[in-house]
Write a structure and sequence with these properties.
The complex is a heterodimer.
Chain A lengths: L3 E5 L4 E5 L1 H9 L5 H19 L5 H23 L10 E5 L5 E6 L3 E7 L7 E6 L8 E4 L5 H15 L1
Antiparallel strand pairs in A: 1-2, 3-4, 4-5, 5-6, 6-7
Chain B lengths: L12 E5 L6 E2 L2 E2 L17 E4 L9 E3 L4 H7 L2 E2 L2 E2 L5 E5 H9 L7 E5 L8 E7 L4 H13 L1 E5 L5
Antiparallel strand pairs in B: 1-5, 1-8, 2-3, 4-10, 5-10, 6-7, 8-11, 9-10
The chains are: A alpha+beta, B alpha+beta.
């Protein structure tokens, strides 16, 4: 059974799957859970801090759900040998109309999530610069398979960072 | 009347003032710099003007010549520099390309609107008929197209 690691975000405690045992079993080498913890905190820490100022409970719950799924995928990415320091940090901001925007920014692309009070109105998008503009992707976060969406987006970000 | 046809001539580039630190994240222009305001007083022929930064009274600056950078950097609000995070430069062709893709055809345009303090002033325009998805997508789609950030001069 994997040990559940806890760490303190600025506002929340999150469970992170213990990749240490998985790493040792699969790869036979030392795998620092603390180091993984810090890498993940670098990616989601700023977002969590911004989330603490969001007054809308529905939005905060949606973002937490997404971040929970994201963290477990990031751990899997680390276990697979990916260098996580290549991943940009997630940023969050409250928009003028009360929606919450989460972005993964790069010069040539951006991944965005817009969270609204009604989960059915929340959406995601992947935008690229230049000639790939007309192939931008977007979709609803409402009743969709968030794991599939995040897997696709993380794969894109990991491949292009 | 929509879509608007830009009858004036336009230079190849324009500038967008970055009013707050939130407009730039990790050295990259954030979608927050392009939030749309569909206020009645901004409607023009059924189009909403996209404000620069967070202010309703500032927009893009067309780079007809090199003076526009200085003009925009000197703009003030409440006695302080309006564009604290600098300016973002865009290629006009990136907006032209956006206007042609099916997802945004008939929804996006631009114009000139010279004002006394800024003869280069203009706007990016988004139709009030834009649906929810388009309104949510456009800030990020536009912001992604910037080519460089011009920081505020030191001192």
């Amino acid at each position: 059974m994997s040990t559940r690691w806890m760490y303190n975000s600025p506002t929340e405690q999150w469970n992170i799957a213990d990749a240490t045992s998985t790493g040792r079993q699969t790869y036979g080498g030392h795998f620092s859970a603390w180091y993984t913890n810090q890498e993940i905190l670098r990616i989601v820490g700023s977002l969590l801090k911004s989330l603490s100022t969001v007054p809308d409970r529905s939005i905060t719950e949606q973002v937490r759900d997404l971040v929970n799924v994201l963290i477990e995928m990031l751990v899997q990415l680390k276990v697979s040998g990916y260098e996580m320091r290549n991943l940009p940090p997630l940023k969050g901001i409250i928009l003028d109309d009360g929606a919450f925007l989460v972005e993964w920014l790069s010069y040539n692309y951006r991944v965005g999530f817009v969270f609204e009070t009604n989960p059915k109105d929340s959406m995601w998008y992947l935008v690229e610069k230049g000639e790939a503009l007309d192939e931008n992707k977007s979709g609803s976060l409402g009743n969709e398979d968030k794991q599939a969406i995040l897997r696709h987006l993380i794969t894109y970000v990991a491949s292009n960072s | 009347m929509w879509p608007l046809t830009p009858k004036m001539t336009y230079p190849d580039t324009f500038l967008r003032g970055l009013s707050t630190d939130e407009c730039v994240s990790e050295g990259i222009v954030s979608s927050a710099a392009f939030q749309l305001h569909f206020e009645p007083h901004l409607l023009r022929n059924g189009c909403a003007a996209s404000s620069v930064g967070w202010e309703d009274d500032s927009s893009v600056g067309w780079e007809d010549d090199s003076s526009v950078v200085d003009v925009m950097m000197k703009q003030e609000k409440d006695g302080k520099p309006q564009f604290k995070a600098g300016l973002a430069r865009f290629q006009r062709e990136s907006i032209d390309r956006l206007m042609k893709i099916p997802a945004f055809t008939g929804v996006l345009s631009y114009d000139r609107e010279p004002i006394p303090e800024n003869p280069y002033h203009g706007n990016l325009l988004v139709s009030s008929t834009a649906n929810r998805t388009q309104r949510r997508l456009l800030p990020g789609v536009i912001a992604t197209q910037y080519s460089e950030i011009i920081p505020r001069p030191q001192g």
